[in-house]
């Protein structure tokens, strides 16, 4: 079901979501197109005591890197922790529409990539959202045709796809190429390596037909390329300290956080409970996530693709705040983003309250917390 808004609210939301550059941001980035619509599940209630809001509207993507939302909704864990407050879910295909919905008040809490969170926060002057928790790390690889590319040096002169100009994976690839001493124009993608920006939905076919020689992409696209005979040349996790970097955060509108802190805390309790269950039951969780994907998209992932993709995604409560700053710095270095002021983007007090209540270590906002 499409998210409905009045024309005035839509204009205001769009204005609030405009990027720092002329680019539009993606589901994981600074530069991609919004999806053409969103789908929503009816609000449901698990019974029990109602909190300060009748319902909470949660947005997320039908994507394995959003496994916390997929599994937590599918297994009713969020609803259990929310009691009599109903859960209403909406799925999106890209970040701009979810940020727009958050700004318009159509979504209260969202699972979203780091770049949309950065752009949504900075474009509103720090007033639209807060990052309140983590969800996933990793799940990004450079997969190549081994017949054409047998080593890193063999990348020169080849065509490598990324999901969109300026998106998180595009920025990561440009940053990595720069570190190798190769020159690529960030806007055109032309240079020592040709960077081809194309939607993940067409990347597999382009790889199969030889139109591209590889791709720096998230799961499950990376594993779909592996299923077509590709080889992993770079696992992005290997480029980060402790092999961890944020790929999915939990954000909340500041107005909802202020009005309904008990609901926000309950959603975070649901997230922590879901993540705990996922990590304790990987095989059942994998099946649950795939069942949710089939329900949302009408098509489950192939077992070979699912088995390859799942282990590379690390489910975590920690938003890995220091890596958010690093990802923003990479985008600035690439010339795709003006230097953002991220001070205040995090409010991890509700999450840390939940973690402390369970005797678990709290997490850091890396000096970027709201005070």
From TrEMBL:
Keywords: Cell inner membrane, Cell membrane, Membrane, Signal, Transport. The keyword Transferase does not apply. PROSITE patterns: PROKAR_LIPOPROTEIN. InterPro entries: ABC_SsuA_sub-bd, NrtA/CpmA_ABC-bd_dom. It is found in: Cell inner membrane; Periplasm. Its main location: membrane. It holds the Pfam family NMT1_2. NCBIfam families: SsuA_fam (TIGR01728). Belongs to the bacterial solute-binding protein SsuA/TauA family. This is Aliphatic sulfonate ABC transporter substrate-binding protein.
């Amino acid at each position: 079901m499409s998210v409905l808004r009045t024309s005035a609210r839509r204009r205001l939301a769009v204005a609030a979501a405009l990027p720092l550059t002329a680019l539009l941001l993606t589901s994981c980035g600074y530069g991609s197109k919004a999806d053409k619509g969103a789908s929503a599940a009816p609000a449901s209630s698990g019974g029990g005591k109602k909190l300060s809001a009748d319902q909470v509207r949660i947005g997320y993507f039908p994507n394995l890197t959003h496994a916390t939302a997929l599994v937590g909704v599918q297994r009713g864990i969020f609803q259990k922790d929310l009691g009599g407050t109903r859960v209403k879910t909406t799925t999106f295909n890209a970040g701009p529409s979810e940020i727009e919905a958050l700004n318009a008040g159509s979504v209260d809490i969202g699972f979203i990539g780091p770049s949309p969170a950065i752009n949504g926060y900075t474009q509103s002057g720090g007033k639209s959202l807060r990052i309140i928790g983590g969800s996933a790390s990793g799940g990004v690889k450079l997969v190549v045709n081994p017949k054409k590319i047998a080593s890193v040096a063999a990348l020169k002169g080849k065509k490598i796809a990324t999901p969109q100009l300026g998106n998180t994976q595009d920025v990561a690839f440009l940053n990595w190429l720069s570190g190798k001493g190769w020159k690529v124009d960030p806007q055109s993608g032309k240079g020592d390596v040709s960077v081809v920006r194309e939607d993940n939905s067409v990347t597999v076919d382009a790889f199969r037909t030889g139109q591209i020689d590889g791709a720096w992409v998230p799961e499950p696209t990376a594993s779909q390329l592996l299923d077509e005979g590709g080889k992993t040349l770079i696992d992005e996790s290997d480029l980060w300290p402790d092999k961890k970097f944020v790929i999915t955060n939990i954000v909340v509108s500041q107005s909802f956080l202020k009005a309904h802190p008990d609901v926000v805390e309950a959603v975070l309790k649901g997230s922590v409970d879901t993540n705990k269950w996922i990590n304790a039951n990987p095989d059942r969780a994998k099946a649950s996530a795939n069942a949710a994907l089939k329900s949302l998209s009408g098509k489950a992932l192939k077992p070979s693709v699912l088995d390859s993709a799942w282990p590379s995604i690390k489910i975590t409560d920690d938003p890995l705040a220091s890596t958010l700053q690093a990802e923003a710095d990479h985008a600035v270095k690439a010339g795709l983003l003006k230097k953002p002021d991220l001070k205040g983007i995090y409010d991890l007090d509700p999450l840390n309250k939940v973690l402390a209540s369970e005797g678990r270590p709290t997490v850091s906002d890396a000096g970027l917390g709201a005070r």
